[in-house]
């Protein structure tokens, strides 16, 4: 079997795995928020989202995507699957963008090792199919990197312009995607100074990037004030600081010895990193350094803000930068497999690395698959049965048990709205869903819930 056939087979098998494990109709709390929000018109999406803690671009993009792909169905079950597909398409585009980027650095992209290593890595599988903004933010950050790398090669001002545009889209997708994009622009500005390029172009670009956020800046400030008074993220302590660096490398293991899993995975990645600095091109090493720094600086920024103001940062907010790190690591591993006799490397060490990564990533895929099956795929049958019962119920108002988990309550609320019925939840506290007592947001978002049911 030739290389192209192997790559095609790998892509097919991974795609099937994604379809089996992640394209399910059950939705957890934040995904329920998303599906409820995109059920409103574009103006209300912006208005309601301004009461939350995220910028609105992802929700607008998802609604547009659903309008052109799910116009033929009223089934929310189908729309949820299509919404997951949207994130997966974005993840594929991220991979292809990064493949083009490393190709410009003189390294082949999009081979089977890179593809499998990237999509099966911890957290990538989960967040690349979630109905949230993380996959879109990762795509924009990869596009910023791609354009800055193009400028580094050609010094054509158009690439700075596009980098700033993509950075601005990132800032309207997630605030810490904006932080990551800002750090990337700054680090390339420093790099260009060392390269003796004209720094005015990127300096003006950074200023434009900041100015382009002004229209939403007032709303962002109001959201920050709301967060400072009440938010669900726990206080900063040593354990949380460690988790902010390692949780993305641990995926679903975080609450069950996941730190050890994450550390094992990160230790395995030290060897390829050292190998890259000894064996790969100057351009690749320079870009790798920036990618690693963006991840670290984004995390440190989140921790610093959490300490100085109030807790506002968790590990998944650095997912866009993490996705870039994982892709570059798997690119290095791919090169090591092709050149095992380079410095600090031989067949034995490369084989040990390959076995170690296979075990670690295999454990992640196995446990994450089990988690998805038990918590999302199997409950799909109960969800479908419940929705069918709600349809057959002659009452227009469905009473939900307030003692259910918040995930179950909002999931059922969204599905009940899709069949044009209302919800009553006795003695309901909206803080269980939003992490704060924002009744205006809750009842605007879930507008089929009877307001008299709240405490």
TrEMBL record:
The chain crosses the membrane at residues 7-28, 81-99, 131-148, 160-189, 201-222, 260-278, 290-313, 319-336, 348-369. The keyword Disulfide bond does not apply. Keywords: Membrane, Transmembrane, Transmembrane helix. Signal peptide: none annotated. It comes from the Bacteria. This is Glycosyltransferase RgtA/B/C/D-like domain-containing protein. It comes from Apilactobacillus kunkeei. The lineage of its organism: Bacteria, Bacillati, Bacillota, Bacilli, Lactobacillales.
């Amino acid at each position: 079997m030739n290389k192209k056939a192997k790559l095609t087979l790998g892509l097919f098998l991974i795609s099937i795995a994604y379809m089996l494990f992640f394209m399910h109709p059950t939705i957890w709390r934040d995904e329920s928020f998303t599906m409820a929000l995109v059920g409103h018109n574009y103006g209300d999406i912006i208005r309601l989202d301004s009461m939350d803690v995220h910028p609105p671009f992802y929700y607008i993009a998802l609604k547009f995507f659903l309008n052109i792909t799910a116009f033929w169905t009223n089934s929310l079950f189908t729309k949820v699957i299509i919404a997951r597909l949207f994130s997966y398409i974005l993840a594929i585009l991220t991979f292809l963008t990064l493949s083009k980027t490393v190709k410009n650095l003189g390294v082949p992209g999009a081979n089977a090792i890179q593809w499998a290593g990237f999509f099966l890595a911890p957290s990538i599988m989960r967040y690349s199919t979630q109905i949230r903004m993380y996959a879109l933010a990762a795509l924009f950050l990869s596009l910023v990197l791609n354009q800055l790398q193009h400028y580094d090669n050609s010094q054509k001002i158009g690439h700075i312009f596009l980098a700033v545009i993509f950075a601005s889209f990132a800032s309207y997708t997630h605030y810490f995607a904006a932080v990551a994009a800002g750090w990337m622009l700054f680090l390339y500005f420093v790099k260009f100074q060392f390269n003796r390029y004209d720094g005015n172009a990127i300096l003006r670009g950074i200023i434009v990037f900041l100015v382009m956020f002004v229209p939403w800046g007032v709303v962002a400030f109001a959201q920050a004030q709301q967060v400072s008074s009440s938010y669900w993220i726990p206080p900063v302590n040593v354990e949380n600081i460690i988790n902010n660096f390692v949780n993305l490398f641990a995926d679903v293991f975080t609450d069950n010895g996941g730190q050890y899993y994450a550390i094992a995975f990160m230790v395995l990645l030290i060897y390829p990193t050292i190998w890259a600095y000894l064996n790969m091109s100057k351009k690749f090493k320079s870009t790798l350094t920036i990618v690693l720094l963006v991840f670290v600086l984004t995390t440190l920024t989140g921790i610093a803000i959490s300490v100085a103001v109030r807790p506002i940062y968790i590990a998944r907010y650095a997912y866009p930068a993490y996705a870039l790190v994982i892709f570059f690591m798997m690119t290095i591993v791919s090169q090591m497999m092709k050149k095992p006799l380079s410095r600090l490397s031989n067949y034995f060490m490369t084989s040990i690395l390959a076995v170690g990564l296979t075990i670690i990533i295999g454990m992640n895929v196995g446990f994450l698959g089990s988690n998805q099956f038990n918590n999302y795929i199997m409950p799909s049958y109960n969800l479908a049965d419940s929705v069918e019962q709600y349809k057959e119920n002659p009452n227009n108002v469905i009473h939900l048990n307030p003692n259910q988990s918040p995930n179950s309550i909002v999931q059922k609320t969204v599905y009940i709205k899709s069949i044009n019925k209302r919800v009553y939840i006795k003695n309901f506290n909206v803080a269980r869903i939003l992490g704060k007592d924002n009744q205006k947001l809750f009842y605007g978002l879930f507008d089929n819930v009877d307001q008299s049911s709240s405490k």
